[in-house]
Fold these 2 entries.
Entry 1:
Amino acid sequence: MNRSFQVDLRGVVDLLSQHLYSSPRVYVRELLQNAVDAVTARRAADDAAPAGIAIDVAGGTLRITDTGIGLSEAQVHELLATIGRSSKRDELGYGRRDFLGQFGIGLLSAFLVADETRVVTRSATGAPAVSWTGRADGTYAVGPGERDTIGTTVTLTARRGAEQWFVPETVVDLATLYGSMLPFEITVNGKAISGPGVPWQADERSPGHRSADLVGYAQEVLGFTPFDIVDLDVPEAGLTGVAYVLPFPANPAEQAGHRVYLKRMLLAENAPGLLPDWAFFARCVVDTGELRPTASREALYDDDQLAATREALGEQLRGWLVGLSATNPQRLNQFLKIHHLGVKALALHDDDMLRLVDEWWPLETNVGRMTLAEFRARYGVLRYCATADEFDQLAGVAAAQNLPVINGGYTYDSELVERVRALEPEVRVDRLDPSDLTTAFADLDPDTALAVRPFVAAAQRCVDRLGCEVVVREFEPASLPVLYLVDRAAAFAGELRATKETVDELWAGVLSAFEKPERDRPQLVLNYRNPLVRRISRLENAELTALAVESLYGQALLLGRHPIRPADSALLNRAFLSLLDHAVPNGEN
Ligand SMILES: Nc1ncnc2c1ncn2[C@@H]1O[C@H](COP(=O)(O)OP(=O)(O)OP(=O)(O)O)[C@@H](O)[C@H]1O
């Protein structure tokens, strides 16, 4: 024998309230939506039929009346009293595109705030009016109804504890939130809450007037004055709307939320996933006829159609950016000042955006700020420092050697410099290795080299235990006495040595296997063009020579922002105090 499922309505309502809907407030939306669908259904057959929806709320009772299609007694049993049954799906079970509802559960949300739902309805088919009362305990009663005109009235009385959702001001706010863009006249306690439609529609307004309205909308609803407004249109998704470009930098890591209307009814104020991640500089307000809602009706269903729409919207924003570069470079520069991080992140994967950055975003270089395109055109090669510290240390010296260098230390800049090859495969890109500079330094003439040899040997003895090699060269700027140069291999060897000093014997042995030969030692390059270095090289007093070399070593470390190891800081301390000792006249005590 076949039996029917039994439904425990309280259990289902609990499920809805705790797991589906974020707040009981959605009951207003569901009632409004049913009324809109009923009016739509009636007008599909008779486009002269009245289209009015009135909400009246007072004393804890809310009544919503529509001039919609109404229900016959048979339909009341089938549609109101059967959970999951909807008149808004086709034979295959797909939601029909004219209607907002599709799941057949919305009316249950009334039980989030009331114990009883009363419906009085008169069908457009001419059937007599019916009255239906559904109760939260899962029972319902049907009888003849009192109603002269075609349409439906749903009445709810607040359950104890749910009175807050029946306060007239709250209901006005909720109905306005959900329904202000709906195409029918909707009133709450006699006051109209529906407006002139979507603010981006093309109508008789002048373009200036329209954009002023759109700015006003952003200020009022989103709380900012947009940098720019981009019209959006994806016919496949029945989507129209606008993207507001943010006037302030947004965090690229944060998923941006968008205001989404579904067939003119608010779906979500903060729906994620509508734009590609890179477009975090825009907030959209859109209306879509085709994208599907989740059952809670609070987000978009993440399916292939949403993915295709996301891509199409991304294209439209990309088009706006590229268009701006062609028509209004100054404005593009202002945009980049606010949103360069996002655009650069995008340029890592996207050639159009890379072109934009290449041509328009000025980078820091040791010959002034300029774009990559300009740098390339002037100097042929894109030479860059990969970190800001390296740039700070080497920019001045490199400039004096006529070596233009880009600071690649800012977020994404090094990767972007390397990526320029995607645009111009021929371009030369060089990462500046500090050791490259030494080849640009001049050797001393043979006589001078011979003369300073004892000094170099003494200096080497001083810094030997610190693991570096002393060389004397001549280079510009002459005002710079000393440079501590670590090439990348030496930097690695240095880190290894530091680790070895802090780990136990076994690991020190293992790490030794990675150690490079001596020639990778960092270099302490003394500048013979510097008068102080010359004087030091001629000192007779061995103790003072050592002290001077140690001080130069310490200064070079500090200038280049190199890591200071315990041995270095001990040396710095000692050298500083001894220098003071030499400098301060010896008094009585
Ligand atoms: N005001 C109304 N006028 C006419 N019919 C209505 C009205 N309200 C509800 N109905 C009927 O009751 C059915 C069930 O409504 P319910 O709100 O539970 O689901 P739905 O609107 O079909 O889908 P969803 O769960 O997505 O809202 C509707 O499909 C509709 O046929």
Entry 2:
Amino acid sequence: MTQDALSIQNVSHSFGRFEALKDVSLTVPQGGFTALLGVNGAGKTTLFSLITRLYDNSSGRIEVAGHDLRREPGAALARLGVVFQSRSLDPDLTVAQNLHYHAALHGIGRSEARVRAHEVLTQVGLSDRMGVKVAALSGGQQRRAEIARALIHHPEILLLDEATVGLDVKSRAEVLALTRELTRHGVSALWATHLMDEIRPEDGLVILHRGRVLASGVAREIAGKDSLTEAFLHLTGEGE
Ligand SMILES: Nc1ncnc2c1ncn2[C@@H]1O[C@H](COP(=O)(O)OP(=O)(O)OP(=O)(O)O)[C@@H](O)[C@H]1O
């Protein structure tokens, strides 16, 4: 059996007495594009904070490329690339400087970092913007530069938290298409969104609602005879 890029088993998390995640389990297969669909407050960011170890996961088990996050945090995090919900590049540095800085955090030497920065910026279509300050990039370009940064240490899985928020229609489509393209080249992606039109029938899908996984599988099968919107409203009870 091939090993999953990400495996989450029975993870819960509370803020004081409020249980934000309740016994969450999901997997992202190698090279898969899996959408994590949930309305605001569903628990998507909390789950990402556990996977990135911003919060300690005290229950259940999280494995990245077979590495247990609690027992082997260094090995697990080395295989993870993250695009956060809010913008996280330094606007006063150039695109290349941002990438070099991130590479250094992963222990990549300067000359190797330069080679990799060129490689990943080519992948996201920004090789001609290396020397430009981030502040001068469009919103869509900044998102693509963040994806390049997330790729520089050659992770096996990318976590993208509402990566298209604030982008115009064209840039949204480009960032989504780029992420799908990356999965065709072996990187896996967990794509958190509240937008149903970002999900294709063949995608992996996990529906998270009020901290619980209500459905997981192939989007087409979850939708069944209905549209995904109808299925989502039915599962969450939001339509009643
Ligand atoms: N630091 C915190 N302290 C207390 N409650 C929190 C904290 N962070 C999140 N929550 C609560 O946990 C629940 C899940 O929030 P979370 O941010 O994970 O949802 P989300 O699906 O990412 O939504 P959004 O798209 O709005 O970010 C919400 O009810 C939120 O109010």
